[in-house]
Each structure stands twice: as C-alpha cells, then as structure tokens.
Amino acid sequence: MKKIFLLIPMLGFIGLQANAQTIVDKGSVGVLLPTPAERQFLSIENLGVFGPEITFEKTKHNFGTIKQNIPAKVKFVFENTGNSNLVIIKATAGCGCTTPVFPKEPIVPGKKSEIEVEYNAKALGSFVKDVNVETNAGTVKLVITGVVEAVASDNNSGTEIKIPTKK
C-alpha cells in the first residue's frame, strides 16, 4: 500500500517533467508574439517608455531668508518626457500656508509646463513644506524650505529693523 502512495506522486512528477520537456523542445517557453493591433505600438521610438512621464528640472527650492507676511513664489518647471499626454490630476499642499497652481490641460509629449507654489510667510522661523503632485504618470513630491524673519519699522526714522528669530 505504501508503495502505491509513493508511486502515484512519482508518476505525477515524471508526467510534469515530460510535459515541461515537450514545451521546451517546441521552443514556446516565454515567447509571445504581438497581435497586429499591438505591433503598431512597438517601434524603436516607443521601446522603453510607454505612456506619459514627468521630469522636473528641480523638485526642491530654498527661499533662503524671507520677510514675514510677504508671500514667496517659485515655479517648478517640468517636461512630459513620455510618449502620451500627461495629465496633472491634483497638487496638494500639506497645510493652508502653501498654495500650488498647476495646469489643468494635458501636456503633450516633449512639451514643458510649470507648477507655481506660493508660501504665505505668516509664521516666523524656518519652514519645510511639501506639495504632492499626482499625475497619470505617478506622484512626485515638491519641497520648499526657508526662514521667515520678522520686520518692524522704526517710527522715528521710517527705516526697517530686522528682528532676529530663534533657530
């Protein structure tokens, strides 16, 4: 009885090996030919990247020291380096002090556009703010940094006096 139970799995294993050998002999392992509809998309230009791809010139910007209550803006320039239209679905900031403005229309392959990010500079001290850009090519994080410094005016001379902030 034990021999039968051992013989059945062995026959199954041998059967699988024979079947696998047949497939290898026929040369069909891992070879799938494209359909005529798929062939039109397979060309030297299209190999590698399929669909849109977003490439930024930079993803981080340091404003340095800026004055309190004077908004600071930066433009993040990007290009669609893919081979189909790029669509920015949304751009969201981590808080209300940072506002991104992005193009609503699709960006065709090879074209550049920009996302403008404004920081309101109301809070004193150093800051690090993120903007997540969600596209049909994936999500990219943009980062702005800097230090907000208070500015007060001297009532006698009318000149500004810088008030240092704690670091």
Helix/strand layout:
Blueprint: H1 2-26, H2 36-39, E1 54-56, E2 60-67, E3 72-80, E4 88-93, E5 98-101, E6 112-119, E7 125-135, E8 138-153, E9 160-163
Parallel strand pairs: 2-8
Antiparallel strand pairs: 1-3, 3-6, 4-7, 5-6, 7-8, 8-9
CATH topology name of the largest domain, in short, is: Immunoglobulin-like
Mean pLDDT over all positions? 80
Structural class: alpha+beta
Principal-axes shape call: elongated
CATH architecture classification name of the largest domain = Sandwich
Total count of strands: 9
What is the CA-atom radius of gyration, in angstroms?
30 Å
For CATH, the homologous superfamily of the largest domain is named as Immunoglobulins
**Helical residue percent band:** 10-25%
Low-confidence stretches: 14-29
Helix and strand run: HHEEEEEEEEE
**β-sheet strand percentage:** 35-45%
